[in-house]
Amino acid sequence: MTVLRKSLRLYLVTDPQLCASRGVIDTVRCAVSGGVSMVQLRDKSAQTHERVELARAIKKALSGSGVPLVINDDVDAAVAADVDGAHIGQGDLTPAQARARLGPDKILGLSCETAQTVQGADPSIVDYLGLGPVFGTATKTDHAAPIGFDGLARLVALSSLPAVAIGGLKAEHASAVLKSGADGLAVVSAICGQPDVAAAARAFSFQEGRA
Ligand code: TZP
Ligand code: MG
């Protein structure tokens, strides 16, 4: 298994509102102590300079952990903060544009909700896919129709790229997600804002172990 596939196993997507009580940096620290293997900084309302500042602080908190950090939507912030990469959606700049700005060595993730977009993702440009939403979720209000585990398995089978599932995922879904062929679970609300963030992350690792 590639290093990236392993990193995708338990992928934390941060949400500033849900992380408000302990803050994003402390949330990341606790989540990684509980087994989170990759982190995406996602803050739709921040400006680039704010994302850069926060990303630098998260990067410092993650140093030595081997846990990659990517920034959602904002390739310029990812370059400025010199994090491990960026994650983009279909409405953002194109993967080719993102790759050109990131350079060849950074991680580039792409969200896909349909067979067409999965098949259109070029493995020479994109490193991994974010697939979903598996279930409906209040965390992202403008999401597409949920695809379920069957839809997830169909999308995973259409690409050779590593893939992480997202959308309404909780610890008890870990084994079904992995059985669908995805490399891991991307999670917001089941970890961010939970009273015990490390325990919430550990619950996923426990379920994965049973997969
Ligand atoms: N993209 C598709 S669903 C989603 C994103 C960012 C949010 C997932 O949040 P949660 O709380 O894990 O359901
Ligand atoms: Mg986006």
In round numbers, the mean pLDDT is: 96
According to CATH, the homologous superfamily is Aldolase class I
How far from one another are the termini? 16 Å
Bound molecules: 4-methyl-5-hydroxyethylthiazole phosphate, magnesium ion
CATH architecture tag = Alpha-Beta Barrel
For the CA atoms, what is the radius of gyration? 16 Å
Give the % helix. 25-40%
CATH fold label = TIM Barrel
Number of helices: 9
- In CATH, what is the class? Alpha Beta
> Can you tell me the number of structural domains?
1
| Strand arrangement across the biggest beta sheet | 1-2-3-4-5-6-7-8
Q: Kindly report the oligomeric state of this protein.
A: single chain
Helix and strand element order: HEHEHEHEHEHEHEHEH
Q: What coarse outline follows from CA principal-axis ratios?
A: globular
Family: Belongs to the thiamine-phosphate synthase family.
Enzyme class: transferase
Function: Condenses 4-methyl-5-(beta-hydroxyethyl)thiazole monophosphate (THZ-P) and 2-methyl-4-amino-5-hydroxymethyl pyrimidine pyrophosphate (HMP-PP) to form thiamine monophosphate (TMP).
Pathway: Cofactor biosynthesis; thiamine diphosphate biosynthesis; thiamine phosphate from 4-amino-2-methyl-5-diphosphomethylpyrimidine and 4-methyl-5-(2-phosphoethyl)-thiazole: step 1/1
